[in-house]
Amino acid sequence: MQTIDYRSDTVTHPTPAMLEAMHRAPLGDDVYGEDPTVNQLQRVSARLLGKDAALFVPSGTMGNLASVLAHCGRGDEVIMGTRGHTFLYEAGGIAALGGIHPHTIPNQSDGTLALEDIENAIRSEDVHYPPSRLLIIENTQNACGGYAIPVDYTRATADLAHRHGLKLHIDGARIFNAAIKLGVDVQELSKPADSVTFCLSKSLCCPVGAIIGGDADFIERTRRMRKMLGGGMRQAGVLAAAGLVALETMIDRLAEDHTRAQHLAAGLAEIPAIHLYPGTPQTNMVYFRLASDARMGTTELVKVFGSEGIRIGGHGDEFRLVTHYWIDDAAVEKTLVLFKKYLS
Ligand SMILES: Cc1ncc(COP(=O)(O)O)c(C=O)c1O
Question: For all residues of the chain together, what is the average pLDDT?
Fold first, then answer.
């Protein structure tokens, strides 16, 4: 039985075309800058983002950490959302390894940070305060429901940050999902920022890797940070080859994942024991809560779905189901039949 795995788009395996490209990739030592496949992936990524340069890193977490370390020094402050991945789920790396102070402000229900809150969070020059150095926004905003953050808002945050001498970093782990949802070229979202990361290993299906984009100077600094963090890889072209296939073939198809998430949500909405979050799904994530009188609790439901070959993620009474390349229409149909069977 083939497992249908909704826990995240990080569970995606490489496609046959990726495996073939990985097999054939020309290789070199990337710490010496000599891996032709990595260099090619970095060139293509930079062009796609409309940036001078790009760097291949092992993970989105390292991409964000290396970027923050390259923008900030010890004692500097970074403004970010309370629902931001860098604040919630990156093991406090910026504080632990960089001595950098996170200053959180609430995310709005659409994933954005209120411009007024950002402005109020920026410190004035005073010996009592840590210097505000960087603003981070996330696109799509995962923990708020996978919201695509619009172009105008991105420009407004960049203008605000720059007016006060801060840089803007975008955690764009799923920025291509955002671009597809908004119907814009990804450059419209990436260009206003000083740095952007995106993940290859999520909805783009690669086994490993993320990209940082920025100006040439900044990328040289992140290269040093990557080395310091132990992320300098050698014949990394075997991984970068999958990235090149992903950028060529996996971006436009993200619309299919969004459509399947809508179909899934529409079916779940017919089940009284399921309370969909308002606005869900925005992109490839369906968020919902179980009613308190549901026939099964979270643990039991996760277990029974597991025995049917479907992996779902539930914490407390909250569920997140993520659609991706390896979930087709038949998988969605089967899932809806089972939800109806166990919860109606
Ligand atoms: C929004 C966001 N940023 C960053 C990351 C970190 O990526 P990685 O798991 O590759 O470290 C994730 C991972 O899920 C994410 O959802």
Answer: 97
- pLDDT confidence of residue 317: 87
Evaluate: CB of 280 within 6 angstroms of ligand 1. Answer: no
Nearest-CA residue for atom 8 of ligand 1: 60
User: What's the pLDDT score for residue 312?
Assistant: 96
Q: Is the CB of 138 under 6 A from ligand 1?
A: yes
Q: What is the DSSP string of 29-61?
A: -GGGT--HHHHHHHHHHHHHHT-SEEEEES-HH
Ligand 1 centroid to residue 314 C-alpha, Å: 18
Instruction: Return the closest-CA partner of residue 271 out of 294, 303, 300.
Output: 294
Contacts of 215 (CB under 8 A, 6+ apart): 51, 52, 53, 194
Q: Cα–Cα distances in Å, from 244 out to 124, 173, 205, 208?
A: 44, 16, 11, 12
CA gap 90, 98 in Å, rounded = 13
Q: How many CB atoms lie within 10 A of CB 330?
A: 9
Over residues 234-266, the pLDDT tens digits come to 999 999 999 999 999 999 999 999 999 999 999
Is any ligand 1 atom within 6 A of the Cβ of residue 85? yes
CATH number of this structure's domain 253-343? 3.90.1150.10
Cα–Cα distance, 21 to 330 (Å, whole number)? 28
- Cα-to-centroid distance, 94 and ligand 1 (Å): 15
Question: According to the model, what pLDDT value does residue 2 have?
Answer: 78
Q: Of the candidates 1, 6, 12, 2, which has an alpha carbon nearest to the alpha carbon of residue 332?
A: 6
Query: What is the pLDDT at residue 208?
Result: 98
Q: What architecture is domain 14-249? A: 3-Layer(aba) Sandwich (3.40)
Task: Write out residues in the chain with pLDDT < 70, as ranges.
Answer: 1
Residue with tokens 């708020």: 144
Residue ranges covered by each domain of the chain: 14-249, 253-343
Q: Are 265 and 276 in contact (CB under 8 A)?
A: yes
7, 8, 59, 61, best to mutate for ligand 1 pocket (most atoms within 8 Å of CB): 61
pLDDT at 257: 98
